[in-house]
Amino acid sequence: MSELRNSTQKLSYLQAIVEAQREEMRRDERVILIGEDIAVYGAQTLFDEFDENRLWNTPISEGSFTGVGVGAALTGLRPIVDLTIASFAYLASDQIINQAAKLRFMTGGQLRVPLVVRLSTFYNNRTAAQHADRPYPLFMNTPGLKVIAPATASDMKGLLKSAIRDDDPVIVFEDINLWGKKEEVPVDPDFLIPIGKAHVKRAGSDVTIVGFAGSLPPSLAAAELLSKEGVDVEVIDLRTIVPMDKETILASVAKTGRLVIADNSHRIGSIASEIAAVVSEDGFESLRKPIQRVTTPSVHIPYNPTVEKQLYPTKDSIAAAVRRIL
Amino acid sequence: MPLDRVQQLELFTRMVRIRKFEEAIIAHNPVGHLSIGQEGAIVGACMALREEDYVTGTHRSHGHPIGKGADILPLMAEIFGKQTGICKGLGGSMHLTDTSKGLICESAIVGGGFPLATGAGLSIKVRKTDQVSLCFFGDGATNQGTFHESINMAAIWKLPVIYFCENNGYAVTTSVEKSHGQPDIARRADGYGIPGIIVDGQDAEAVYEVTQTAVNRARAGEGPTLIEAKTYRFDEHSNRLAIPIRYRSDEEISHHRTNRDPIILYRDILDERGLLAEAQAVEVAVTQLMEEAVQFAKDSREPDMQDLIDNMYSNPIHFPADAGFA
């Protein structure tokens, strides 16, 4: 058993999503998966193992099948609703925001909503404005939800498993630009990463970069680039958006005195905006220079890939933001 | 299976409780969406259910928990917004939910309950119990997309759900005739290949009988039924809402109050069956109960900020530190 606990297997980010679901479905018969064409998005091997009572392939009815998940969660199951493409969350937003997020509160704690909603962010993939949203801030601004956005296969597996075991509704953002990235992931079926804890991916003393999901790899690349210029960068992977790990960010800024936030959200009201506000309120005396946000401009996502790829934070745009405040 | 004498008096008791509960609201003027006139439809349906069966309700929410047999004191305290309320004063008039009686949601978003009731039906099927899920909704809600999406899913999966329309003729001020391509909601059942039944909602025993047929069908695994109870709302949409336009005539209201009151109609039936003295005793007892409930509500404390925090998440440890309660 200890051998199992210490061993790892190489998994892609997408495989980690499937394995997390498989392990939790094996462990707990209350876990079911609901969504449209769910076999297409990595779950095909689950169909070999679980029957139709565990895998609910739905009609095209995002608003209502998400609510079916809420109703099932209220009555003893632990559903995972796969909305596949994050832009479809707007169709389901009434059930997520008005029902899942509020039912525990509105009933004075009589109800629990152990629901997981999976949303894939399909940006940088020529999917254009109605398929390429990264709507992290919408759900950050909804009390009652927890929101995770992992950047690595290990974090995805550990956080998704925590989400499935959580008694509250959890929104899981998956970044399709990371689907193929592989790493060694613990095999232990009880490997869990706590919701609400950021991770210092790289220690440094001159400047803090906070990234998450698809903005983490360019943040780390920017740190490598800057190290060649003699700049010692600390990179924090936020991992969980709600509840946000303020302590880890503030401790880092207390050390470095400089903060750059890389965020694929649209700039206005972004996750970066929230982190900037938190550090301005609670860590202002640590700051030696103004906070920099590297975000997606508040324009819609075009079909043209040449223009599209210029919109998101890159190694170079993040490094440039760091250089502005050295 | 016809109701026995004890059940007949229970049906009458629950109808009178709804009526006098709402008359107390009128007397004391907290916010309330009253269902006076619709008691026969609500209680007739609930009498066909077991305590462990699920119910989702509407913004006109007082009748559903009372119809399902909930205790009155916590309901009244909730209407007064007190901490002893069934939802700790956090839900109020449109969310009067008692989960101990199987109520899983009273949705103030019109049409919001369809997916939840359907999800409860799915949960019953997965867990292989013989419960049913009954979804109350108004005629106005049937023009929401969730109506179509949810009934379609329940039909294809043969879920044990009873979709029960309290058709009172008006979505606030808009009549069924002016908002529906054809005014008989039950006929829509054809579109999903399920039974659709119209019943006189002012005849509580008739409602009980058709609901029982639907419940038996659901418990036998034969799938959902759509029931349309033609009923009438005697009072305004909300007791504190001034309606600036006249959308129904005094004669129409007067006709229903005088000739179509489900409580008077059922009392006459009980009289014919030799139960008048028992019915009168019920009315006296319910009047006393409401006086006690109002006093309990008045004497109870208000919720405080800590109550808000405690009811946000299942584990308060996860309450976001940056939620603004610093």
**SSE arrangement of chain A, N to C:** HEHEHEHEHHEHEHEEEEHEEHEHEHH
Which structural class fits the helix and strand makeup of chain A? alpha/beta
What string gives the helices and strands of chain B in order? Answer: HHEHHEHEHEEEEHEHHHH
Walk across the major sheet of chain A and give the strand order.
Answer: 3-2-4-5-7-6-12
Low-confidence stretches of chain B: none
Calculate Rg of chain B over CA atoms: 20 Å
Low-confidence stretches of chain A: none
Mean pLDDT of chain A: 96
Enumerate how many helices of chain B there are, as a single number.
Answer: 11
Main beta sheet of chain A, described?
7 strands, mixed
Helix content of chain A: 25-40%
Rg measurement of chain A, Å: 20 Å
Reading side by side through the largest sheet of chain B, how are the strands ordered? 2-1-3-4-8-7
DSSP helical segment count of chain A: 13
Task: Give the class of chain B from helix and strand content and strand pairing.
Answer: alpha/beta
Characterize the overall form of chain A: globular
Largest interface: A-B, 50 and 56 residues
